[in-house]
Amino acid sequence: MTTVLETDEHKALRAAVAALGTRYGREYLTKVIAAGAHPDELWSEAAKLGYLGVNLPEAYGGGGGGIAELSIVLEELGAAGCPLLMMVVSPAICGTVIARFGTADQKQEWLPALADGTRTMAFGITEPDAGSNSHRITTTARRDGTDWILTGRKVFISGVDIADATLIVGRAEDARTGKLKPCLFIVPRDAPGFERRQIDMELHGAEKQFELTLDDVRLPVEALVGDEDAGLLQLFAGLNPERIMTAAFAIGMGRYALSRAITYARERTVWRDPIGAHQAIAHPLAQAHIDLELARLMMQKAAFLYDSGDDAGAGEAANMAKYAAGEACVKAVDQSVHTLGGNGLTGEFGLASLITASRVARIAPVSREMILNYVSHQTLGLPKSY
Hints:
Shape: globular
Largest sheet: 7 strands, mixed
Low-confidence stretches: none
Strand content: 5-15%
Oligomer: single chain
Order of helices and strands: HHHHHEEEEEEEHHHHHH
Radius of gyration: 21 Å
Number of strands: 7
Helix content: 40-55%
Distance between the termini: 39 Å
């Protein structure tokens, strides 16, 4: 039986990325966010060390690994307090989709640049009226001679301001059935008719959120990724890595919060002994650790299945991993803040902002309720209510 536990190479990668993350840390990311800037220094150094493109083919400058390796990178940066959210989007979703389905020209143009961090790509699927129902996507792609014309809106799209292009999910009419089918297009940031508006978020992060408008954006035929008749397969080839990487993001954040709480509980003395000696403090932290470890096991399983080419198995495991990691992260952050008491709400300890940030893993890229729907229908065989 093949094991999904980590190899010596994986352990070495963890240690190396952890060392990089420690040199930057939470303080670095906090300063970047306060300045309204982007973590360019960390992004560039991670790229030079080969971490950003670790999942991309060696033939295009990548590390030749998979989502298992990329998830390790994001988790360890998160555990150090400086996760790079665009890793979920640029190398994991867009890089994977192009590597698996892109044309030779698309691979040559994008994969080396995504691997070395000199170019980034955003991903646009969510729409104002569609929510989690991808079948209600209204962004349409129609033929005009050899060109494609895209019209529609997207919302909550990360990093569009720094991305060189956005991989847009639209729907095109099937010539045989007349039904709309999903298709993926690479839309350059300066394409005429492609507009963005930053969304005012209570959650403060280095990566900003945008609403996009595509007003008759004309694209050459080369903008279409892969086969227009295999759009659904291509779409889920990107969404499964997105769920796995979101799990890595959540686990890293939970580990960071927990480490701060553990250090505090060892040192903080109110009566005679450190507060960590009291079971009311120690047991919830132990439970949080257990939940994070269990979530990581499911994430490792999902990454293993995906990298092995088992898309169906990976879909189930990726959804479960994302669910488990989101729940574990929220609980770990909540318990960590509670352990510190009033100090948990101060800027000095840097935990309070994670109360909001941790909820992202419960909401995006798919809500926990939709994952429960998926498991109840696809895994348990229960009937749908919709």
